[in-house]
UniProtKB/TrEMBL annotation:
Protein's GO biological process: ribosomal small subunit biogenesis; rRNA processing
InterPro entries, A to Z: Brix, IMP4/RPF1
One cellular component term from this protein's GO annotations in UniProt: Mpp10 complex
Boundaries of every Brix domain copy: 78-283
Any matching Pfam family: Brix
Identification of the protein by name: Brix domain-containing protein
PROSITE patterns documented for this protein: BRIX
Organism the protein comes from: Haemonchus placei (Barber's pole worm)
Molecular function GO terms recorded: rRNA primary transcript binding; snoRNA binding
Coiled coil: 15-45
Keywords: Coiled coil
Length: 318
């Protein structure tokens, strides 16, 4: 079974690399086509291969979406497992944990069925269909393999420093990608005044100011953690980007007299700072290829807006 998983992962990475190469060629063809149609100068880097690319532009092959990791998104609800780092503090447990009790059954290789008593609250209430798994002494490799064997779509790992939640890793299964976020300004749901019982409706999603290719990539990673909501759902979750910090806000709304909409914060709330995307899963993350990593030299005033400014994408690619 392990050999089969490794073979499937290698085949997937190979197909993805071919798609990346084809996409790069198609982008060059589009630039040359646009320059010819608008009587502009062809970019210096493209002049050497301009004739060959222009001749192939008419018969260019169709490109499959780079986000084929999410090709089944929307056809079935995501299945999410949330866990913590080892020996979590009480504050991190509250951030993940909840009041309901459930059982989650894992089967992995020759092991017997493991019934884990799972409790949910803060993050369980955020992600519908999520289950919290007690970490215990399990290794990340064991957890990811168990999740993959049980058709889990996403594995979320929450970390802390000195009792404060400060990190979130979202690993999409079975082959990736894996996104890394730093958490800032975490406010627990129980710290929000006048909160009401949490609705379990599937939420509507709002993504603001995530316009660049990198921003759209993170939009896909976060968007497909949630199932498709019904039109009459009164829950709203917002991911708003400001200076490459993604503000997470969770509200419910009601329509009052006069047709005005009244928002009520449900919590929790925090800021997400993305810093890496790996083309692989957590159990083999050291061997995974970097799709994007935040570097220290990117943190300048000119290149601050990595998630929102479309015009800066060419600078980042260079």
């Amino acid at each position: 079974m392990i050999r089969r998983e490794n073979r499937l992962r290698r085949e997937y990475i190979y197909r993805k690399s071919l798609e990346e190469k084809q996409r790069a060629i198609e982008e060059k063809r589009e630039k040359i086509k646009d320059a010819l149609e608008n009587n502009k100068k062809i970019d210096t880097a493209l002049r050497k291969d301009a004739i060959e690319l222009a001749n192939g532009a008419e018969w260019g092959g169709q490109i499959m979406s780079i986000d084929d990791e999410y090709r089944w998104a929307g056809t079935k609800d995501p299945k999410i497992v949330i866990t913590t780092s080892r020996e979590p503090s009480s504050k991190l447990k509250v951030f993940v944990k909840a009041g309901l009790m459930s059982h989650f059954c894992f089967r992995w290789l020759g092991y017997l069925n493991i019934l884990c008593i799972v409790c949910f609250k803060e993050m369980k209430l955020v992600f519908p269909n999520a289950q919290r798994l007690n970490r215990g002494h399990y290794d990340v490799k064991q957890l990811v393999q168990a999740c993959r064997a049980n058709d889990v779509t996403d594995f979320i790992l929450l970390t802390e420093t000195r009792g404060n939640p400060d990190g979130m890793v979202v690993c999409h299964l079975p082959f990736g990608p894996t996104a890394y976020f730093t958490l800032f300004n975490v406010v627990m749901r129980h710290d929000i005044p006048d909160r009401e019982p949490m609705s379990e409706q599937y939420p509507h999603l709002i993504f603001h100011n995530l316009d660049s290719k990198l921003g759209q990539r993170f939009t896909s990673i976060l968007k497909y953690l949630f199932p498709v909501p019904k039109e009459n759902s009164r829950r709203v979750i917002t991911f708003a980007n400001f200076d490459d910090f993604i503000s997470f806000r969770h509200h419910t709304y009601t329509v009052v007299q006069g047709g005005e909409i009244e928002l009520k914060e449900a919590g929790p709330r925090f800021e997400l700072r993305p810093y890496a995307i790996k083309l692989g899963t957590l159990e083999n993350i050291a061997a995974a290829e970097d799709e994007w990593v935040l570097r220290s030299f990117m943190n300048t005033s000119r290149k601050r807006q990595l998630l929102s400014n479309k015009e800066e994408e060419s600078d980042e690619e260079d």
